[in-house]
Amino acid sequence: MKAMEKIICLVDGEHYLPVTKAAVETLDCMEHIDVKALVFIGGTEKLKTSSPEEYAKIMEKPVYFGEDPHKIPYNLIRKIIRKYDADTVMDLSDEPVLDYSKRFNIATIVLEEGAIYRGPDFEFQPLTEYDVLEKPSIKILGTGKRIGKTAVSAYAARLIHEKDYNPCVVAMGRGGPEEPEIVRGDKIRITPEYLIEQAYKGVHAASDHWEDALMSRILTIGCRRCGGGMVGDVFITNAKRGAEIANEVEADFVIMEGSGAAIPPVKTNRHIVIVGANQPMINIKKFFGPFRIKLADLIILTMCEEPMATKKKIKDIEEFIHEINPNAKVIPTIFRPKPLQDIKDKNVLFATTAPESIMDVLVAYLEDKYKCNIVGTTTHLSNRPLLQKDIEKYINEAEVMLTELKAAAVDVATKDALDAGLDVVYSDNIPIVVDESPEDLDKAIIEVVDAAIDDFYTRLTP
């Protein structure tokens, strides 16, 4: 027998009361639905009574009013969901009481409470979270793509490994394998030739778990996903199976790594969220940016330098984060490349996914810190035709191809460079805390790891 769906309805005074009552009764007469209560969220045009008691008497349901009829009672909605342990919040309101922004605010609250937010032509469901991990864990997720999530994940994994927590990474990517794939970054030597060999076998050898294995030298498990919903769920993924494999391997701590703005559907003890200061403010402050930010125990703000983000914008983002998630530590960072091998006195062709606007800064950094000569650059690792054109333009001047392990780094950049007789050196991206911040990034990451371990063992205690 199908379980009764406990529903809270959002209603307003812009609808004639008998019309609202008819809508509620239409819902309530369905045999699998139990309308528990109504929350009045504003509007006065057709409201003949402001008395909750009289309104409830007419509706024959409990009705809750906020303190200010001109403001959406967000906290009240949360309170009533909890009071009735509601499965669904059904929105029977409309413009002008609710606009798009207000509806996303409501959706964030409803999803945080683990309920469904539904309207006449929309439905937002809570994140899928399979509770399958048998080890302490964190999740690293992002608010978008190309904000440095994989670089931060690799950095965190390496740090956690160096601190003897014995971690593994389960990475979910759009180019991942059909069956979860274990890469023993702790045991095998991942060379350019080895990655080319994998590519010839049909493996996407620049997928995130290969990058994690190369940069962090730990065991990684590669998974795939397709599609990314607005909240963060995916259409298909084998990440749940990847998590189950993580239970079986020789690791004591699990890092679940997201993909773009998509979130692995596996429950973890704690969360680190990557926010790009280069993202449009509307994507951070509106839609489901706040939902992701509220998940965080630690927020690493990346790309905190001009021209990608002004100091004012960075400050505005930090203030917004502190406002909606005051318990999360926020650490502003920039990225700088770190070659995995010596490139001193070499003529270098540098391939990256960084934007063209920051290229002069990266070139100056590489030449100054690693004493090399950058003879050419390309920002087109994610665009194979343009990448090949750039390589053809500079390859005769270079001795070394320095490339990030992303996108077409193997099947185009590495292959073309090896074919031309160049050495290939892979480049990590290291998050560096900006000078103005007093925070210690390494300490903050380990604090989240320790909290995750405490949570895990507390949950096991009877």
Q: Could you please describe the fold and organization of this structure?
A:
This protein starts with a strand and ends with a helix. Strands 7, 8, 9, 10, 11, 12, 13, 14, 15, 16, 17, 18 and 19 form a 13-stranded mixed sheet that branches. It has a 6-stranded mixed sheet with strand order 3-2-1-4-5-6, sandwiched between helices. By secondary structure, the protein is an alpha/beta fold. Helices cover 36% and strands 24% of the residues. It has 3 domains: 3-122, Rossmann fold; 135-334 and 432-458, Rossmann fold (3-Layer(aba) Sandwich); 336-429, Response regulator (Rossmann fold, 3-Layer(aba) Sandwich), CATH 3.40.50. The model has no long low-confidence stretch (mean pLDDT 93). It catalyses: (2R)-2,3-bisphosphoglycerate + ATP + H(+) = cyclic (2R)-2,3-bisphosphoglycerate + ADP + phosphate. It is found in: Cytoplasm. This is Cyclic 2,3-diphosphoglycerate synthetase. GO terms for molecular function: ATP binding; cyclic 2,3-diphosphoglycerate synthetase activity; ligase activity.
CATH architecture of the largest domain: 3-Layer(aba) Sandwich
Cα shape: elongated
The number of distinct helices, counting runs of at least 4 residues, comes to: 15
CATH topology label of the largest domain:
Rossmann fold
Q: Sheet with the most strands?
A: 13 strands, mixed
End-to-end gap: 33 Å
**Which superfamily, in CATH terms, is the homologous superfamily of the largest domain?**
P-loop containing nucleotide triphosphate hydrolases
CATH first level of the largest domain: which class?
A: Alpha Beta
Radius of gyration: 26 Å
How many domains?
Answer: 3
What structural class do the secondary elements suggest? alpha/beta
Low-confidence stretches: none
Averaging pLDDT over every residue, what do you get? Answer: 93
Strand content: 15-25%
Helix content: 25-40%
